[in-house]
């Protein structure tokens, strides 16, 4: 093909104008912009674990002798360990390269071009992104003013052509949990309900036990947040039998690499340590909330996750974010129709909170 534009013209048409995912920038980019050394950046923009992974993970990765061998495609050891951790049958569990990949698998399994996916915004960006990528159509149902899922509106919206409803609980970025009775109502609809429990360890609220009796409920989890493995990419889902058996057929063989499987396995062997860091983050969440509430310009929302959403009043959220970045502190800001002037701050260590509060005082009280 000589025509330089030829191959581009062959790209699936729905992908050429697709909005890319708004990912968090790497540490090096923050260093380049702020001049603050990588190891001094305070990273509160990705809901990662500020205590890092378990020391057992680092040791096991160093000593692992089989990096030259393909990983177990069936993820047997990891799924056996997860079976105990999650209290769900071995056959119902499938791991992915991050829970992001499991969202992709669900799309691959269910979405034909034009099929509808219900997205309760504001929420995690991957649901829209993956639906777009697979040629589905998103039906947007805004959450209520308190960020609760508007169940009545979802029911109205779930007409012909709807195949999937995504609910993050706790929701990112609002931090609230969707009550069981709401999920039970959604499960009565003839669609698949994907309940994303990425932040389960911080809320301690799960609906995994419902999967057994509901053939249309999928629960997704991740090691990125509580176990400090965001960089290794490992998550898992709990699927009803009638879905799991098909997912196994369409899953690429070695989707979770050997290092990620090993790291997840070692994490599950070091629960005492990891749960102690989760406990520290939950305690710090309250301290951070109280400190943020003292600023007249900030209205923090109660959160059951490892981040806090704040609406910003009489000040500009974006400029707060930029001012903090200049000082080497990274947070997220939003300016969407539903989150017009908001920031989201991941819960860090106590020294991170102290540095953030000092910087915010400098920015907001001067
Ligand atoms: C609600 C929600 N689900 C899933 C993820 C992604 O998890 P993973 O790193 O396992 O792909 C995130 C990350 O921010 C999230 O907020």
Map the helices and strands.
Elements: H1 6-9, H2 13-16, H3 27-34, E1 42-43, H4 55-63, H5 76-86, E2 93-96, H6 99-110, E3 116-119, H7 126-133, E4 137-140, H8 151-157, E5 162-168, H9 180-187, E6 192-196, H10 200-203, E7 217-222, E8 235-238, H11 241-250, H12 258-268, H13 271-293, E9 298-300, E10 307-312, H14 317-326, E11 329-330, E12 332-334, E13 342-346, H15 350-364
Parallel strand pairs: 1-11, 3-4, 3-5, 5-6, 6-7
Antiparallel strand pairs: 2-8, 7-8, 9-10, 10-13, 12-13
The protein binds pyridoxal-5'-phosphate.
Could you explain how this protein is built, in words?
- With 366 residues, this protein is α/β, with parallel strands linked by helices.
- It folds into two domains: 139 residues, Aspartate Aminotransferase, domain 1 (Alpha-Beta Complex); 216 residues, Type I PLP-dependent aspartate aminotransferase-like (Major domain) (Aspartate Aminotransferase, domain 2).
- It has 15 helices and 13 strands.
- A seven-stranded mixed sheet has the order 2-8-7-6-5-3-4, sandwiched between helices. Strands 9-10-13-12 form a four-stranded antiparallel sheet, with helices on one face.
- The protein is globular.
- The N and C termini lie far apart (62 Å).
- The model has no long low-confidence stretch (mean pLDDT 96).
- Bound molecules: pyridoxal-5'-phosphate.
């Amino acid at each position: 093909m000589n025509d330089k534009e030829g191959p581009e013209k062959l790209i699936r048409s729905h992908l050429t104008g697709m909005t890319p995912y708004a990912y968090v920038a790497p540490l090096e980019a923050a260093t380049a912009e702020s001049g603050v050394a990588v190891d001094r950046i305070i990273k509160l923009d990705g809901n990662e674990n500020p205590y890092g992974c378990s020391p057992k993970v680092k040791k096991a990765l160093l000593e692992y002798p089989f990096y030259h061998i393909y990983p177990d495609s069936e993820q047997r050891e990891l799924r056996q360990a997860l079976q105990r951790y999650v209290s769900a049958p071995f056959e119902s569990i499938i791991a992915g390269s991050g829970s992001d990949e499991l969202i992709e698998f669900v799309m691959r399994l269910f979405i034909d071009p034009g099929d509808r996916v219900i997205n309760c915004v504001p929420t995690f960006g991957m649901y829209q992104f993956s639906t777009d990528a697979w040629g589905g159509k998103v039906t947007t149902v805004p959450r209520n003013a308190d960020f609760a899922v508007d169940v009545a509106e979802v029911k109205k919206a779930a007409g012909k052509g709807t195949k999937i409803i995504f609910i993050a609980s706790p929701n990112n970025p609002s931090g609230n949990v969707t009550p069981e009775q709401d999920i039970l109502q959604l499960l009565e609809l003839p669609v698949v309900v994907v309940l994303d429990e990425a932040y389960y360890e911080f809320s301690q609220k799960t609906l995994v036990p419902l999967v057994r009796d509901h053939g249309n409920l999928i629960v997704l989890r991740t090691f990125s947040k509580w176990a400090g493995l965001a960089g290794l990419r490992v998550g898992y889902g709990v699927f009803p039998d009638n879905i799991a058996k098909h997912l196994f057929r369409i899953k690429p063989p070695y989707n979770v690499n050997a290092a990620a499987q090993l790291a997840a396995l070692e994490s599950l062997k070091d629960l005492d340590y990891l749960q102690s860091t989760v406990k520290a983050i939950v305690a710090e969440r309250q301290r951070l909330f109280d400190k943020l509430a003292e600023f007249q310009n900030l209205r923090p929302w109660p959160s059951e996750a490892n981040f806090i959403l704040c609406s910003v009043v009489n000040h500009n959220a974006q400029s707060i974010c930029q001012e903090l970045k200049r000082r080497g502190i990274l947070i997220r800001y939003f300016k969407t129709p539903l989150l017009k002037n908001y920031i989201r701050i991941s819960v860090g260590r106590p020294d991170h909170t102290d540095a953030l509060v000092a910087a915010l005082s400098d920015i907001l009280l001067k």
